[in-house]
Structures are given as C-alpha cells and as structure tokens.
Design goal:
With 129 residues, the chain is mostly helical. It contains five helices and no strands.
Length: 129
C-alpha cells in the first residue's frame, strides 16, 4: 500500500512548500487560463484558442506534473529537478530583463520569487537546509 509521506525536516518542508506552490500555479493555469494570462500580462489573439490550449497543456501540465511528482514521491533528486526548473525559469527572466529591455517592476519581482522558488528545493536537495 502506498502511503503519503510527510516531510520531516525544515529543509524538506520548504521544498515541499515550493512543490505545493508549483501545483497551485498549475491548477490556476489549468482551471483558469484566461485569468492566469491576465496575471502574467499575456493576451491571446481573439478568435484563436491556441494560446489557451498552450496555457492548459504545456504550462499547466508541466507545473502540475513536476509539483505532484515531488509531493507524491518526496525524493531529494526529484526536488532537485523542481529547483532546477525554477532556476532556469529565473535565468530566462533575467536574460530577458538584461537583453530584451524587460526590466519592469513585475519582472524584477517575478525574478525574486522564481529565484526563491529555486533556492529552497535546491538547498534541500544539496543538504544545505
């Protein structure tokens, strides 16, 4: 029988919390893609459902799969994958800020949040917290 594993250390709880936040983002994108796009300052082209499908499929699917995988399997290497995913998300945003002129307050705040979401599971996976 499979049992749900509860975190035991502070570092594991922090990584678990990032996985839960990731699942929350995935659920928001999956269930309310139009609202999610407004929050992300994206706008689909009228009359084309392709962008909505992208939000529900690619974006929500990845967040849900990675986050739920962490919550259900609770292994340090899986948390490492979650941390690397958020780290590359933050890196992509930083590159855009530096090279695309996207240095808005929203992007800087998002960069800080994404960096925090990367550091917590990586710190646990590497035994630092």
């Amino acid at each position: 029988m499979i049992e749900f594993y509860w975190p035991e250390s502070i570092g594991e709880w922090l990584a678990f919390a990032v996985a839960a936040v990731t699942v929350g983002f995935g659920l928001l994108l999956f269930l309310m893609p139009r609202l999610s796009f407004r929050i992300l300052r994206l706008q689909p082209v009228e009359g084309r459902a392709d962008a909505i499908a992208e939000g529900r499929g690619t974006m929500a699917g990845f967040y849900l799969g990675c986050g739920l995988g962490c919550l259900l399997l609770a292994q340090p290497l899986i948390y490492l994958v979650l941390g690397l995913g958020w780290a590359f998300t933050a890196l992509g945003r930083l590159v855009s800020i530096l090279f695309d002129g996207a240095g808005t307050r929203f992007n800087w705040l998002s960069l800080l949040v994404e960096a925090l979401l990367a550091v917590l599971p990586l710190g646990f996976a590497f035994g630092m917290i």
